[in-house]
Structure formats: C-alpha cells, structure tokens
Fold Amidase C869.01.
Amino acid sequence: MASSKSSPLRLSLYSTLLILFLQSSGSHSKTNHAFSIKEATVQDLQLAFEKNQLTSRQLVEFYLEEIHRLNPLLRGVIEVNPDALCQADEADRKRKVKAPGSLGGLHGIPILLKDNIATKDKMNTTAGSLALLGSIVPRDAGVVTKLRKAGAIILGKASLSEWAHFRGNNVPSGWCARSGQGKNPYNLSTDPCGSSSGSAISVAANMAAVTLGTETDGSILCPSNNNAVVGIKPTVGLTSRAGVIPITPRQDTVGPMCRTVADAVYVLDAIAGLDYNDKATIEALKYVPHGGYKQFLKPDGLKGKRLGLVRNVFFSFENEPLYTEVFERHFSTLRHGGAILVENVNISKFLAAYNSSIDYESIAMAADFKLAINSYLKQLVVSPVRSLKDLIAFNNKFSNLEKIKEYGQELFVDAEATNGIGKKEKEAVLNMAKMSRNGFEKLIRENKLDALLSPFASISWVLAMGGYPGVIVPAGYDTDGTPFGLCFGGLKGSEPTLIEIAYAFEQATKIRRPPSFKH
C-alpha cells in the first residue's frame, strides 16, 4: 500500500503500472489513442478497484497532484476539499468489507462540483464571487446528498463564469474573481465558454474523474463543446436544484460533464430523481426510467432513430469547409448506424415560431433572478450579503478587486429594478411557452423525430426556453486544435433516447483525444 504522501515520482510509476494492468486486462474503454490513467473511465477505475490494483486514496492523490501541476495554468479549480483523502479512505474501507453499494457505480470516484453547488463542509460555495466567501450553507445541495449516498468523493469546487455568467454582459467566459481566467486546455488562447467552464476544463485536462455543471442557457452544452467533453443538459426538474445558487427555476438544471457518455450516465444515474426540497423533481420523476439510464448505453442505439437535419439553419458553413466535411462524414456515420436523417421538414414554420423582436427570455429571467437569489441568500446560515441589493453594493465597493468597472454588473442592476412577476413577465413566460409548443415540439412531433441535430451548442437557446434535454458529444477539432461537438436535443424526458443516440455515435467515431495545451 502506498504511503499517505505519494511523491510525483511514485505517482508516475503507479500510473505506468496501472496502464500496463488495464492494457493487459482488456479494458472496456478502447480508444483511438494510447490508454493512460489520465483518460481512465469510471468503468476502468472500478475494474482497477476490483482487482486491488488501485485505491481511492491513490486516485485522489493522483488528481490532487494533477491539480497542483496544471491548475496554475488552467484555473479550472477554485479550491480542493481538505477532507477528500479522508473520504477516499472511507470509500476504501467500505470496499474492503464489501459494504452495500461499495462495488460499483460512483463509489470511490472523485468528482468536482461547479462552485454554485452547495456543500455543507469545509469548502465555500460562492458562484466564483468574493461576495459569498465565508458564507455557510444550511445543507448540502440535493445532488450532493445523492452523490455522497452513491459513495462519490467530493474532490473540490470547479471554477465558472462568475455568477453563472449572470452579472454583466462584458464578463469573459471562464472568468471569476476567486480564480481568475479559466483556460481551454486544447488551445489556451481560445474561449473555454461558460458558465460551467471549470467543470469542462478540469475533466478535459484530467484533474478529476468526472464533474458536475449547471445550465440555464448553454452553460453545460457550450463549455462541453469547446473542451471536447460529453455534457448532458437534463430535462428541467430531472435533477434537483435545491442548494444550487439560482438564476431562474424555470430553466436551471444540473448535469454531468465527463470524458465519455458512459461516465456522464453513471453521474446522471446518481443525481436524477426526487428531492422534496425542489418541487420540480416531483413532476419530473415520471421521466426517470425504472432501472436508471445505464441500460441505454447501447452500441446499436442509432438503429431506427429519426434525426432532424436542418442544413440551411444549423449546418451552413460557407467559409468553413472543414466543418462541412466533418459533419457530412458524421451524417454518413449516423446513417451507417441505422439512423434515418430527416431533411424534408418545414423549417420555416419552426423558425417563425421564434420570430420576435422582444427578448422574452431576458425579461422573465431578470425578475426570476431577483426573487430566486434573494431567497437563496436569506436561507444562508452565515453570509456577508443577504440580497441582490447587497451584492450590487459589494461589487461597487470592491470595484477594483472584482474588475467591476471593466466587466460591469448591468444584469444585476436590471434584475434589481424589477418588482416581482408582473404583467410583462407573465406575458414573457406565456410567449416562451407558446414558442416552444409551436416551434420545437411541433417540429419533433410532426416529423416523428427522436432528436434534432445541432453543431456546437447552437440549439441551446431552444432547449433552454422549453426546459428540454440535450446531449453533446465531441465531433472534431478545427485548424487551431479547438474542439467542437455534435448536439442531440429532444423533448422533455427523452434522455433514454438521447443517450442511446449519443453513445452509439461516440462508439462509432471515438473523436475525443487528450488536450494539447497549445498556446
């Protein structure tokens, strides 16, 4: 057994031994690049645990060393959990005695959480802002309670675009006051996207086994796209938002960001389901399949699936022949896997449903945010701020510290100017619901589609507005080495179908490769 303070040399030697073990044992995760511990899947790690080739303590030590080595450059992690090694020891102990639930799933697997997901421990929960530093939450977020029950190790908090990118329009993606500017590990000069930037950066760069992000509009799908990871944006209410620093309960959702579809599904299985602290999970419970989501990891999952392909809207790349070439190749792969690509859809009707000069989403979101953030702040056990008004005052007072003058907080100011859900806000919500019914839902139902295809995260706004799920999978790299993905979006509760499609596509293409840290 390794000592409690493994040196980098010991970790390097251990990595080599694990590589040899996994290669000789016929790992279930065959990829198109040489296997290493840095790309190990949850299934690989569980197999290593089972064969007594790896302990959770050794695994946590490895990730802590990678964070120490890479995070000064990437800034994907805000803080690590001082109790992570203790949790690892407890996971090892339970595995040794074969305690119930200790022999699979996420047991003993380290996970990083976006820093807007509350943990009742020695770590902070701040949404990346100095305003909440030192605040104390009343309890773990609902998803954290489920992760702990599954035996996952809470490794630390991932960075994010501050306040989940809902502070000012000029705040760069991946920047927050607590950790600075996050960097894309594939191309350090490229936008990592946000707001779940740190979750994507960290899992892409192998600073954690798996990560958790949140999305209101594009915040899982976009960073997953830019950092070559798999992101699942669940149906709103499928996963609890209780204890998550909010933007709007109509659109907020919590989902996994991982290196493979299977890993993301392991995480989704752990966090989906009922939480009485979030009423939306009661209604969405009907969408959770008996037996969980792992059963939908089918290599032949494309067979018979009807996929909407709207070339002229989403796949028109006049000045980017590389994208055209790559996606046409993927369309052939989808067809070869048995999918039916439906192109003769009435797209004009779909687009007309969303044609409006009024930004209804922003109108509703501003009022929702003020109500939701005030409620969250008031529930904190200890906090230096208790309202949105306090947050604005804090930012004004420490403008040099948080770059307020440069980045601004106009979204905060606009939200503070609202006065509850009035006639204007109600009309905005009704119009968004109408758009979703007459747009995305009609497109899917009239054409009997299982999913709509989208390059990058182009469809995120449609999915966000209607509370629909989406799964994005790595699809390629541009001439600068920056990744891009292919997104599959569906109706509420269609996660089983989307997982089948995404997994089969991933297994047929094997696009993902480790980052190059290119300048």
